[in-house]
Write a structure and sequence with these properties.
Elements lengths: L4 E4 L3 H12 L4 E4 L4 H6 L5 E2 L1 H9 L4 H6 L1 E3 L2 E5 L2 E5 L1 H5 L3 E3 L2 H14 L3 E3 L3 E6 L7 E6 L2 E6 L2 E4 L17 E16 L9 E3 L6 E5 L5 E7 L10 H12 L12 E15 L2 E2 L2 E3 L5 E2 L7 H22 L3 H28 L7 H16 L1 H12 L5
Parallel strand pairs: 1-2, 1-12, 2-8, 5-14, 12-19
Antiparallel strand pairs: 3-7, 4-7, 5-6, 9-10, 10-11, 13-16, 13-17, 14-15, 15-16, 17-20, 18-19
Protein name: 4-hydroxybenzoate 3-monooxygenase
InterPro entries: FAD-bd, FAD/NAD-bd_sf, RIFMO-like
Keywords: FAD, Flavoprotein
């Protein structure tokens, strides 16, 4: 087989890149090891920055997003027995939209399928070759047959456990990594949200987050130890701990319901530089990971492939290579800003394993300042809704 850009991974990054390339008249093939059903239903991030919403609308993917997405103009910081609203739209003129990653993926797959896009699910034994030449090859197995995809470029959008990044020779990439001494226990519950906006709660027993996916479905998180066994958290224990950490404001009550899904996710920060090696371009979780506190993961992936789509368009339309050459440096400016914001939010809101009383006092002091200073609140809001240029 022959195409112009071979894309490994059918998450938001790989699918959006394929969509953008199609709109620019550039051929691509997307390879994914999981089934279509799996990628359309795996629960991941659910907050879209204003820029991500504008992007999806601009490339014809806004119809269901506008109909079903939940626009939020603020978030709530809850600590010390009181609720404090950060009025994001008032402070920045922008907002966020709650719309699950799996819904973005469904929309992208539908758009690529309708346009006759080449999406191959359930491939195996994917190997990249010839990346240091002008004729890369992706070898894989599909439906029991060995296949080869010859292309001009390879886009590695296959996440932190994919094959793309390990295909770069040792010593060519530098990793900047941090693991946090806590994890998130997340649940999806058939319970109408008891709030119209996300609640970030600081509590001496640990952090909690109240989010939602629809008017009928809530998404909630608890800070737990990294080695937590989910079997030790029956439903009633989860709801009891959520009540303790969230029902700290007089008159506010948590809505409960059947828990549809539960999982424990470790907290990690990672950046790999550069985001390109020869004919391989890395994007999304394949090259950077942020803790979910700042809601940046999916947004960074979409921003990466927007740059990459423009760079490929300039190459094929005008023979220009300057945007391809600048891709890594340009993308990393936004990546590091998001890294800092995610680290700051995580450090501010989570109970430290050492239970250092000095750190706890600093956290409360910072929270009071954030919620009383318009300048500090504006900085938080700007980063949360997404800076237009970084």
């Amino acid at each position: 087989m022959r195409t112009q850009v071979g894309i490994v991974g059918a998450g938001p990054a790989g699918l959006l890149l394929s969509h953008l390339l199609h709109r620019a008249g550039i051929e691509s093939v997307v390879l994914e090891c999981r089934s279509r059903e799996y990628v359309e239903h795996r629960i991941r991030a659910g907050v879209l920055e204003q820029g991500s919403v504008d992007l999806l609308r601009s490339c014809g993917l806004g119809e269901r997003l506008d109909r079903e997405g939940l626009r939020h103009e603020g978030i709530e910081l809850r600590f010390g027995g009181a609720a404090h609203r950060i009025a994001m739209t008032e402070l920045t003129g922008r907002a966020i939209t709650v719309y699950g990653q799996q819904e973005v993926v469904k929309d992208l797959i539908a758009a690529r399928t309708a346009a006759g896009g080449d999406l191959r699910f359930e491939v195996s034994d994917v190997r990249l070759a010839g990346l240091d030449s002008d004729a890369p090859v992706i070898r894989f197995r599909h439906q029991g047959r060995a296949e080869e995809l010859h292309c001009d470029f390879v886009a590695g959008c296959d996440g932190s456990h994919g094959v793309s990044r390990p295909s770069v020779p040792a010593g060519e990439l530098t990793e900047y990594d941090r693991s946090y001494p806590f994890a998130w226990l997340g649940i999806l519950a058939a319970a109408p949200p008891a709030t119209e906006e996300l609640i970030y709660a600081h509590h001496d027993r640990g952090f909690a987050l109240y989010s939602m996916r629809s008017p009928e479905i809530s998404r909630l998180y608890l800070q737990v130890e990294p080695e937590t066994d989910i079997a030790e958290w029956p439903d009633e224990r989860i709801w009891s701990e959520l009540r303790t950490r969230l029902e700290t404001v007089p008159g506010w009550t948590l809505n409960t319901g059947p828990i549809l899904e539960k999982s424990v996710t470790g907290m990690r920060s990672l950046v790999v530089e550069p985001m390109r090696w020869r004919r391989l371009f890395l994007a999304g979780d394949a090259v950077h990971i942020v803790p979910p506190t700042g809601a940046k993961g999916m947004n960074l992936a979409l921003a990466d492939v927007t740059l990459l789509g423009d760079a490929f368009a300039a190459f094929y339309r005008e023979g220009r290579e300057d945007l391809l050459d600048a891709y890594s440096d340009t993308a990393l400016r936004r990546v590091w800003r998001a890294q800092h914001f995610s680290w700051w939010m995580t450090s501010l809101l989570h109970r430290l394993r050492t239970d250092d009383p000095y750190e706890a006092k600093l956290q409360l002091s910072t929270l009071r300042y954030v919620t009383s200073s318009r300048a500090y609140a504006t900085s938080l809001a700007e980063n949360y809704v997404g800076l237009p240029e970084v």
